[in-house]
Amino acid sequence: MTRVWREHDVDTTFRRAHRFIDGNETEAIGAFPVLKFKSDNSLDLIFVKEAAGRMTSFSDIHQNDSAMIFLHERFQGSDIYDGNKAYVTAFPVHEFHNSTAAAILLNPESVETKLIHWNELGLPRLINHWGDMLTAFSIVDHYAVANNFAGGFLDCHLKDEHRRLFLFKKDYFERKSVPEWRLNHLTNFRYNFSDPSFEARIRKAHNVICSILARNSCAVLTESDTTKLKEMYYSEMLVHNADSSDPTAYAFAYPGCKGIWFNVDLIDSLSDIAFTQTTFHELMHNLGYHHPKDINDPTYNDTIPVKVETCVIGYEDETQRIPNLCKIIDGPYEHCPT
To answer: Whole-prediction pTM value?
Structure first.
């Protein structure tokens, strides 16, 4: 069955691409998604290296499928100045930065710029809608790859029947294929917190856990566990809530349910490694695994939720385990809370 792009898909895909960076691509400042569905349920992402440009933000660009069109029409084919430096173009990341809409500015040397007549490659004359943009960007990507570039896009603004074409040089951009199960959770999961930075920390922890699953590097997990987690990341909605009813517990989950409750005041002080260990631990409760309430119980350290903590990169020994990490929710319960 052929997949088609629907309203909000472009906005969502750009947002997922940018959020994927944290915990996965530490040297990238941005990610440009190739807007083509692939038969293996993966997407190509083009990671923007630091030397290629910088992130900035604008208060007057839209955060929707047509954000690129609005941004390019604002500058109408001119260079973009940020401070005293000129940048040749920009693309929106569909995420907020300092409370305004973020965009990646590109240095002139990071791209090969061509001025072409609008129909030179079979492009649509006008790009007024995100559907036009999809058609045009697909043509440009095919042309870029055929000419040994990492990818590219074009200026949505038409000037004197011509457009600028921006081709990504491989010294400044890196293209990788990423399975959609590693991307979908970045907008599918729900976070009920007032602090966006805390939400970002949890997303980063999930990114790290996904990288562990992708490498198949956690021997604690059964094949069935790994499959269930990938399915959760691909298509399910995991809800994250705040709860400080137990001032000594960092987090908790109802075994077999799709939710995690975090003690924000306590857990936010943890290192990234310990934060990820906590999230991984609670995911095992989501799969239905239990452990004794008493951490001094001799069987405690042999339970799956505790053992997966050792799979997080950076774990060295048991001294890094968090005492009273989570409180246990006894069943049975008629309904999973939300």
So the answer is: 0.93
Backbone φ and ψ for 240, nearest 5 degrees, come out as -120, 125
Residue-by-residue DSSP string for 217-275? --TTS-HHHHHHHHHHHHH---EEEE--SSTT-SEE--TTSSEEEE-HHHHTTS-HHHH
CB atoms inside a 10 Å sphere around CB 95: 20
Residue positions counted in the chain: 338
Instruction: Say how far residue 43 (Cα) sits from the centre of its chain.
Output: 12
Q: If 0-12 CB within 10 Å is exposed, 13-18 middle and 19+ buried, where does residue 245 land? A: exposed
Instruction: Write out pLDDT tens, residues 54-95.
Output: 999 887 777 899 999 999 999 998 889 988 899 999 999 998
| DSSP codes of every residue in 86-143 | EESEEEEEEEEETTEEEEEEE-GGGEEEEEEETTTTS--S---SHHHHHHHHHHHHHH
Kindly report the backbone phi and psi dihedral angles of residue 177, in degrees, each rounded to the nearest multiple of 5, phi listed first: -95, 130
Q: Is the peptide bond before 247 cis (omega within 30 degrees of 0)?
A: no
In whole angstroms, give the CA distance from residue 277 to residue 209.
Answer: 9
Map out the domains of the chain as residue ranges: 9-178, 184-320
Q: Which of 72-81, 114-123, 138-147, 153-162 has the lowest mean pLDDT?
A: 72-81
* Range of weakest confidence among 69-83, 140-154, 204-218: 69-83
Q: What is the dihedral of CA 308, 295, 241, 7, to 10 degrees?
A: 10
Predicted pLDDT at 162: 96
More confident residue, 294 or 107: 107
Q: Domain 184-320: which topology? A: Collagenase (Catalytic Domain) (3.40.390)
> If we measure between CA atoms, which residue out of 314, 321, 307, 318 comes closest to residue 219?
307
